[in-house]
Design goal:
476 residues; alpha+beta; 5-stranded antiparallel sheet; 3-stranded antiparallel sheet; 52% helix; rod-shaped
Length: 476
């Protein structure tokens, strides 16, 4: 892919990197055909009474208006006064024709299309009462008023899911938006989400021209002989918006042309540590410079976001348990940790991780946290000399390290030997030990005591000289 030359698009990129660079439109966009059709119909311009301006873009102005035939408020889109070339007229008509063909709840409907007295297009659209997503991202107070009581990240992800729905529908009709960004998403007062501004939308295929919003654009949007636009280009833009949701800034935020181009070619993504790992991984995958490495559809991105929201409770329990685990590790690092505090924190950690796994069995962080918690307590029990408790804790581990297994087995052997020594000592001091032998000894002594006088009398009668010797055994 060749490096884009710093022409008009590059100047726009340098001056306003968040503004859309509109490529030169070929004559095959369909705008000329729409113009010919409208001129042939000879219809009067749409019956609208225009009021205050609602906003302006690269080549158009949107005003609030009243549609007289139905008495309702609408939005009217016209070309800016300085943009009145035939190519600009055909571009706006092509946008109206394309967006009008996309009937989806997340795409603002087109009510009418016509030409005013001077032959300039008048596009009548649904008026959306609300604010742009960019405002909700920039102003926490506005976000809190829009979704009171809901976590900000959850609100933004639910908006992004609706954008995915709009894109998946458009891709099914062979349309690539090419300019997905928060300023092109309107959020209604009643929760409606609309993806707007299909001005540079195109059919999939080669695109040699630089086009899109610089701070979000995919590498293939830089243009060049081998650049190909596809639905995966919009998948990249979804990842760029997700990156802004997680970090607070667009992935290629810079005002320097060369820096922006370098970032588009090789983005350096830095996410805050509190960003959920699932979402970080999804954003990195979407922002792959190689289209084939991205999620293969906007629907895949939507499913990944919905899965994350379904797992949000489990992840929150994991974060709380991880905080308790850090407290436990700090306590265990102390010379003499207080046992009651240790076991209290251990119980909280284990319960938190186990509950997180009950809510979502695939929660790898919770599983790793539980393993770390149990291993820490195994080491504490080994240090305390309680091999039996260490063995019971070891049984809770999914994967047991050989070194830790060996430590527990050595402690068990040492504890068995100690128990054997204590048993031997107990037997040696137990008064019941050898009781039968002592009783037999006493009986024989008693018999000897009874018969010894009789034997002594007979012995003295036969050997009178032995009388003096009888005192020795008697004394013994």
């Amino acid at each position: 892919m060749q490096k884009p030359e710093p022409g008009d698009g590059a100047q726009t990129l340098t001056r306003e990197p968040r503004n859309t660079i509109t490529p030169p439109r070929p004559d095959t966009t369909g705008g000329a055909r729409v113009l010919e059709l409208l001129l042939g119909l000879g219809r009067p311009p749409p019956a609208v009474v225009e009021e205050a301006a609602l906003g302006s873009g690269g080549m158009s102005v949107v005003r609030l208006a009243t549609q007289e035939t139905l008495g309702r408020k609408v939005a009217v889109k016209r070309l800016s006064p300085e943009r009145d070339s035939p190519r600009d007229v055909e571009a706006l008509l092509a946008e109206a024709w394309l967006s009008g063909s996309l009937e989806h709840p997340n795409i603002a409907p087109v009510y009418d299309l016509g030409l005013d007295a001077s032959g300039r297009p008048v596009l009548v659209m649904k008026r959306i009462e609300g604010q742009s997503w960019a405002t909700l991202l920039r102003e926490p107070e506005a976000l809190a008023a829009h979704a009171p009581g809901r976590a900000p990240l959850e609100t933004h992800l639910r908006i992004l899911i609706q954008v995915c729905n709009a894109l998946h529908y458009a891709h099914a009709r062979d349309v690539v938006h090419r300019d997905v960004k928060p300023t092109n998403v309107m959020v209604g007062n009643f929760g409606e989400v609309y993806l707007l501004d299909w001005g540079i939308a195109t059919r999939p295929g080669p695109e040699p021209e630089l086009a899109g919003t610089p701070v979000y654009m995919a590498p293939e949007m830089l243009g060049g002989e081998r650049a190909v636009i596809s639905p995966l280009t919009d998948v990249y833009l979804l990842g760029a918006v997700l990156c802004e949701v997680l970090t607070g800034r667009a992935p290629h935020a810079s005002v320097n042309f060369d820096e922006v181009v370098a970032s588009v070619r090789s983005p350096k993504l830095d996410f805050p540590p509190e960003a959920p790992e699932e979402l970080v991984a999804l954003a990195r995958q979407c922002l792959s410079t190689e289209p084939s490495s991205r999620p293969q559809s906007a629907r895949d991105v939507r499913v990944a976001l919905e899965d994350h929201l379904a797992h949000a409770g489990s992840l929150e329990l994991t974060r709380q348990a991880e905080a308790r685990l850090r407290e436990l590790e700090a306590l265990l690092a102390m010379p003499s940790p207080e046992p009651r505090a240790v076991f209290g924190l251990f119980s909280q950690c284990r319960f938190g991780f186990q509950q997180a796994l009950r809510d979502w069995a695939g929660n790898a962080r919770a599983r790793q946290g539980l393993e770390t918690t149990v291993k820490a307590m195994v080491q504490l029990e080994l240090k305390s000399g309680s091999a039996r408790t260490a063995r019971a804790l070891l049984a809770e581990l999914t994967h047991v390290e050989l070194a830790l297994q060996a430590q527990v087995e050595a402690a068990e052997a040492e504890e068995s030997a100690r128990v054997a020594r204590l048993a031997a000592l107990e037997r040696s001091v137990d008064p019941r030990t050898g009781g039968a032998a002592r009783m037999l000894t006493v009986v024989w002594l008693a018999i000897g005591w009874v018969i010894s006088p009789l034997l002594a009398e007979q012995l003295v009668a036969r050997w009178p000289a032995a009388e003096s010797l009888l005192y020795v055994p008697f004394a013994a």
